Amino acid sequence: MDRAETPSPPAEGRAHGVVLALAGGVGGARMAQGLARVLAPGDLAIAVNVGDDFSHLGLSICPDLDTVMYTLAGVHNPLTGWGRADETWNFLETLGRIGGETWFRLGDHDLAVHVERTRRLREGESLSTATAALCAGFGIAHAVFPVTDDTLRTRIDTDIGVLDFQDYFVRRQCAPVARAFHYSGADRARPSPPLADLLGSGRLRAIVLCPSNPWLSLAPMFAVPALGALLDARRVPVVAVSPIVGGAAVKGPAGKIMRELGLSVDVSGIAQHYGDRVDGWMIDERDARHAANLREQGRTVALADTLMTDAARSEALAREVLALLDRMPGPAV
Ligand code: GDP
Ligand code: CA
Q1: How many domains does the chain contain in total?
Q2: Looking at ligand 1, which atom is closest to the CA of residue 213?
Q3: Residue 304 phi/psi, 5° resolution?
Q4: Domain limits for position 152
Q5: Could you tell which of 26, 70, 267, 307 is best to mutate to test the pocket of ligand 1, judged by most ligand atoms within 8 Å of the CB?
Q6: In this predicted model, what pLDDT tens digit does every residue of 118-167 receive, in sequence order?
Q7: How far does the centroid of ligand 1 lie from the alpha carbon of residue 251, in Å?
Q8: Which residues contact 286 (CB under 8 A, 6 or more apart)?
Q9: Is there a domain that residue 226 lies in?
Q10: Is residue 325 pLDDT above 50, yes or no?
């Protein structure tokens, strides 16, 4: 089991301050795990998407927070990208037998997290506080928090109508053609207290956009006005790790969505989407032909093997990302 909490000392000469990683589920969790193996808890904060969150069977479910939490704790299922390894399914099997809804898979171990989170929220705790408690229970030393404690829900405008996220993603397996994305509640969403504290602390060193789905995982976070404004008026470098490797998404519907939006499914399409919000690009060695174009646009570019198939590879990529940050021009505050 990989415990992520064995940070090595910071490299000589590396700028001080907190690296803020913006993460969705599997791509975000893999990158966060790598960063957590390199950076001490005081030097890394992981803000997580809540656009996928929903209420199901009376439970508050936060899929991306759970994927990040399980991955950092080393109890995740690396094959599915969601849920836990060594899971059992007694609850769901019994639920199915008595005619309950089973389209959303909830394993027995996973279920305990949803029950406990729901209890805490019902008793008046914020999602940030409940998340901190759950992470502490899993022995995670690094700060993991939702981007906002307010309700923010991703909805997808498709050829068959506007769909709630889990309806689109899980029930319909992303088959409908996506036309646009809505992040309902985002305009009123405030940054969660841990995020607000970090942004106001003067300790932010850089922002890492994990290789998460740009429309389903990162855009809902950018839609939180204070975070979007910070990205636009930033004083710290933003580095993005491409979720597209060799002309395809590593996992999930990012490539399909890009085609449906008329973008080319490659690094240039991703870079076009993020535009001026990214200063530095970490792209895969397989995509080296895109580097020159990005450099002409004024970006700092690094190449690496970006497939994080295990914790050691996540850590190796995290070291490359931090090396890229050290090469970035501009103040590292
Ligand atoms: P979700 O919330 O579980 O869908 O996960 P994310 O949005 O965080 O991640 C989905 C994205 O991560 C997909 O677009 C994948 O291409 C990307 N991804 C997953 N694993 C890797 C990896 O090992 N390397 C890179 N570069 N991208 C990855
Ligand atoms: Ca997700």
Answers
A1: 1
A2: 7
A3: -160, 170
A4: 18-326
A5: 26
A6: 999 999 999 999 999 999 999 999 999 999 999 999 999 999 999 999 99
A7: 6
A8: 245, 246
A9: yes
A10: yes
Residue 308 near ligand 1, beta carbon < 6 Å: yes
What is the per-residue pLDDT across 73-101, written as a single tens digit (0 to 9) for each?
999 998 888 899 999 999 999 999 999 99
Residues counted in the chain? 333
Ligand in nearest proximity to the CA of 165: 2
Nearest ligand, CA of residue 281? Answer: 1
What's the 327 CA to ligand 1 centre distance in angstroms?
25
**Is the whole-model pTM more than 0.85?**
yes
Calpha distance 27→7 (Å, rounded): 21
- Which amino acid belongs to residue 295? R
pLDDT tens-digit series, residues 234-261: 889 999 999 999 999 999 999 999 999 9
Domain of 53, CATH number, reads 3.40.50.10680
**pLDDT grade, residue 110 (50/70/90)?**
very high
Decide if 8 is inside a domain.
no
